[in-house]
Write a structure and sequence with these properties.
The protein is α/β, with parallel strands linked by helices. The protein has eight helices and ten strands. The structure holds adenosine-5'-diphosphate and magnesium ion. Adenosine-5'-diphosphate binds next to strand 2 and helix 2.
Length: about 290
């Protein structure tokens, strides 16, 4: 993957973006309450039926940063996709701000592991696309896009095409694009999973700085325990398939979090707890796969 010194998010400078009226208004509205009640998701029919998520319950308060942690294949993306409105609940209910989720909408901003930018549009046009679709004029949308590119430290790349940017930069454009719709909740599915360790850490810091300013609700999927504990207010540990919630761990480590947090005894103890839960779950998953 192409890297350069420009790759690194300018974590210390992102807070200098212009604060907009819209932003303040949305913060006052206290949006982003997620309620997932008794959710089960089944794929396939009859003999081929496969339960991916079972009796999953989760409530997230506005502004909380929640990480979903669990072994591969346990249903993390499935829970996220149900909240995104891409797949329907087989049983139970998924609500955002009191409304049942039925289809995708601009109140949910998605960031995936592989960027999904439109290759034929410039970086600016990619970020401006959402606001344009929801009724902003071209100049309003471009002005918003410039604001959010500044937030992620990529103002200088507005006129470039996505394929001329490194993986980390493309993910930052993806975050700017998601934020430009003023989502109530930011849904991030292993967004830094494909990045090298150094870049991933810079991205995590950058994301926390942005979140501390915007206070969107964030639901962040990862299988990386360090990442989950470093970022989250709460780490939700899921069982092996079919995914259930097995532990809801509150992370009371002080913010802003810096690298020092990794040597904090509280961090180490939570990490060990997560490691044990995930190890037990992975063993169970292996045993299940052996029987299949
Ligand atoms: N669209 C789908 N159709 C059929 N099975 C699916 C579909 N999406 C996911 N699954 C299955 O559901 C289970 C959970 O998948 P997923 O949510 O992607 O896991 P995770 O994100 O935790 O790795 C897996 O067994 C996967 O194969
Ligand atoms: Mg997944």
């Amino acid at each position: 993957m192409e890297t350069s010194s420009l790759e690194k998010p300018q974590a210390r400078t992102v807070l200098r973006y212009p604060s907009t009226d819209t932003l303040r208004r949305r913060q006052q509205h206290n949006r982003g309450h997620v309620s997932i009640a008794d959710l089960s998701i089944r794929f396939g029919q009859d003999a081929n039926a496969h339960i991916a998520v079972q009796n999953f319950n989760l409530t997230i308060e506005p502004g909380e940063f929640v990480c979903l942690l669990g072994p591969s294949g346990c249903g993390k993306s499935t829970v996220m996709n149900a909240l995104a409105g891409f797949i329907k609940a087989s049983q139970g209910n998924v609500q955002l701000d009191g409304k049942t989720v039925e289809k995708p909408g601009p109140d949910r901003g998605m960031v995936f592991q592989q960027h999904s930018l439109l290759p034929w549009k410039t970086v600016l046009e990619n970020v401006a696309f959402g606001p344009l679709m929801t009724g902003a004029t071209k100049s309003q949308a471009e002005s918003l896009a410039r604001t959010f590119l500044e937030v992620v430290g990529l103002s200088a790349y507005a006129e470039r095409f996505p394929n001329t940017l490194s993986g980390g930069m493309q993910q930052r454009v993806g975050i700017a694009r998601a934020l430009a719709n003023y989502p109530s909740v930011l849904l991030m599915d292993e967004p830094f999973g494909a990045l090298d360790a150094q870049t991933r850490h810079m991205m995590q810091e950058n994301l926390l700085e942005i979140w501390s300013e915007f206070r969107n609700t964030v639901l962040f999927v990862t299988h990386d325990i360090d990442e989950a504990v470093y970022l989250a207010d709460r780490v939700i540990v899921m069982s092996a398939a079919p995914g259930r919630l097995i532990e809801d761990i509150r992370i009371d480590l002080p913010r802003p979090r810096t690298e020092d947090v990794y040597s904090d005894p509280a961090f180490i103890s939570i990490k060990q707890r997560c490691l044990k839960l995930i190890r037990d779950e992975t063993m169970k998953a292996f045993a299940q796969q052996n029987q299949a």
